[in-house]
């Protein structure tokens, strides 16, 4: 493994983070409704679980999902229902005052972990990316470096998102369109959950 492999992995990782998936939407929504600390905390949880999925992929967990499809289906179903529950909560509270949704950082951190824990596609995605980018038979040290790199990149990106989204100008714009923004985010999350539930 060399630096070019890590650079290619980081480009793929940044593209995945920036895509409008549940992790990105929850990170943005948490920052806007609960503040910078909660936004950073949810990002730390998201990043930790994403890095753990990469570790699982590096050490062969996708083989378990292939060997035992029921385990993959069970985790996927629970994850889909969890996303749909979050979407329902977002839709229902769209008209609530901003301070009604403030949550402590520890709760946000736990939510970040759960969002990525309940998405077993993460380990399959990570496995596919890792196989394409990295050479086979990497050492334990190289595997640990990839995991640590993933963790640091996720934490930096989500912290930057929390800091940027918590500025006064962004918050003011969000407040003006809160109802519609929350409902669009809820619809997207609900659709992602439904797609995950129905996807074979």
Write up what this structure looks like.
The radius of gyration is 17 Å and the shape is globular. It has ten helices and no strands. The mean pLDDT is 80. With 200 residues, the protein is mostly helical. It has a domain at 3-12 and 22-68 and 98-177. The longest helix is centred in the C-terminal third of the chain and has 26 residues, at 140-165. Helices cover 82% and strands 0% of the residues. Its main location: membrane. It is found in: Cell membrane. Keywords: Cell membrane, Membrane, Transmembrane, Transmembrane helix. This is Threonine/homoserine/homoserine lactone efflux protein.
Topology:
Elements (H helix, E strand, L loop, with lengths): L2 H16 L3 H13 L1 H23 L2 H7 L1 H24 L12 H13 L3 H13 L6 H26 L2 H9 L1 H21 L2
Helix pairs in contact: 1-8, 2-3, 2-6, 2-8, 3-6, 3-7, 3-8, 4-5, 5-10
Structural class of the helix and strand makeup? mainly alpha
Strand content: under 5%
Could you tell me the mean pLDDT?
A: 80
Contiguous helical run count: 10
As a percent range, the share of helical residues equals: over 70%
Protein name: Threonine/homoserine/homoserine lactone efflux protein
Keywords: Cell membrane, Membrane, Transmembrane, Transmembrane helix
Membrane topology: Multi-pass membrane protein
GO molecular function, one term: amino acid transmembrane transporter activity
Give a brief description.
It contains ten helices and no strands. The protein is mostly helical and 200 residues long.
